[in-house]
Structure formats: C-alpha cells, structure tokens
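All the exercises in this workshop are built on plain-text protein records. A record pairs a protein's sequence with a compact description of its fold. Backbone structure tokens are a discrete shorthand for how the chain folds in space. Once this layout is familiar, the rest of the handout is easier to follow. As an example, a complete record with its sequence and its structure tokens follows.
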Amino acid sequence: MPGIHVKFSVDPGAMDAGKATAAARWIEDLLGRNPGEEVVRLTAEPGDEDPLALPREVVHLLAHVLRQVARGRGVSVVPSGAELTTQQAADILRVSRPYLVGLLESGAIPYRLVGRHRRVATEDLMEYAHGLWPESSLPPTEKSTKKP
C-alpha cells in the first residue's frame, strides 16, 4: 500500500537487556497502578507538567516489545492493512522465499498479484502463522513447518 511503511524493526541484541527489563517492569507497574484507565500518562520526571498521554493498548504493546528485547529477540511492528512482499512474508515466517511462494501457490495463504508480483495481506499471513505455533513461542524452522 502506498504511503505505509511496512515494517519497523529492532534487531536482536540491539538494546541492553537489563534496561529493557527495567523499562518493561516500570511500564507494567504503571499499568497495574492505573487499572481500567483508557489513557496512560507517562512522565519523564516526577512533577512533570506535560505528561505524554498514550492509549492503554499502545503502552501494553511497548511493554511487550521491551520484554521481547530483554529476551534477546528481535521485534518487528507491521501495521494492519499492510501488504507484504513475498520476501517480507518469508522473513516473518522464517522460511525461504521459494518455500513461501509454494505456500501461496498451494492456496495455504491468500495473496494477490500486482503486475507480476505477489502481495500478502498482513492479516492473512498472521492467521496462517497463528495456526502453526502459539504466540508465546518462536516460529519453527522451515524444515519443521507443516501445512495445516
């Protein structure tokens, strides 16, 4: 889709794990102290008169990203509604591009053609991925991937 940056990434090991763990705990404590609040206010310093107001879901996402970084995992954020190239989709599933193309051609994952190029909707790819492995685990290697 034009105008949509498809993927924002943090490479594994790019951040200090201890700092990421401390930040995640701080955010989780903040969420615990403000249960049910739709907007969470973050301040840089006590008494800050201009806090940053964020939707609760965004703060949860930030805590999740920090927990993954603390475990040494890379993280990518892909906007919903984005379409991925076959290489981007293969990278997310941690399989080769030819293997992914085989999944597309077999009908396991829907796609559309843009000229001669295949595009995969993020939602379709995630639906397929969630059928392969639970959200809390790492994706399997290409050799252990099975078609549903």
Observations:
- The helical segments are 17-33, 56-70, 86-93, 97-106, 122-132.
- The two ends are 29 Å apart (CA to CA).
- Residues 109 and 124 are 6 Å apart (CA to CA).
